[in-house]
Structure formats: C-alpha cells, structure tokens
Amino acid sequence: MANEPFFRKDGDRFIPTAAGIGPWTATSLHGRLIIGLLGSEIERQYRTPEYMPSRLTVDMYRLPTCRRSRW
Q1: Rg (CA), the chain
Q2: What are phi and psi of 29, to 5 degrees?
Q3: What is the largest CA-CA distance in the chain?
Q4: Which pLDDT value is given to residue 69?
Q5: Alpha-carbon distance 27 to 65, whole Å?
Q6: Among 31, 6, 32, which Cα is nearest to 17's?
Q7: Given a cut of 90, is residue 11 above it in pLDDT?
Q8: Distance between CA atoms of 38 and 49, rounded to whole angstroms?
C-alpha cells in the first residue's frame, strides 16, 4: 500500500481506495480524508483572488461509509 492514493478520480467522481479505510470498520472511510478532499475541491472550484478559503470546519455525525466491502 506504499504511496497509494486515498482516492482515484473517475470522471467527476472520487473513488476511495484501500488506503482510505478508517480505523473503525472495513466499510468506513477515514474522516480526515473526506474533509481534506472537500477542502481541496472547494479551493479548486471556488478560489479566486477575492475569495480564498482559510479555514474549514465540518461536523461529522456518523462514520463516512463506502459501498465497497473488499479492497
């Protein structure tokens, strides 16, 4: 799993890889990766000289799950 990306891009979608599995269950993603991806996409899609995000706070009320059960 050395140097494996957390997500692979498939068109407009981000497909999680085994490297993104969280510590709780085999079908949950690590929350920090979801937030990192969200922050990266906000910057990529909306950053302008007048608007550059500097902080992102997200409340997660449950584990981010993935449909894949085997990697």
Answers
A1: 14
A2: -95, 155
A3: 44
A4: 47
A5: 6
A6: 6
A7: yes
A8: 20
Cβ atoms of 65 and 29 within 8 Å: the answer is yes
- In the block, residue with structure tokens 């550059």: 52
What's the pTM value of the predicted model, to 2 decimals? Answer: 0.76
Who contacts 19 (Cβ-Cβ below 8 Å, separation ≥6)? 1, 4, 5, 6
The residues, any chain, with a CB within 8 Å of residue 49's CB and separated by 6 or more, are none
Kindly state the tokens that stand for 69. Answer: 């059960």
- Torsion 14-33-61-65 (CA) sign: positive
**Cα 58 from Cα 24, distance rounded (Å):** 19
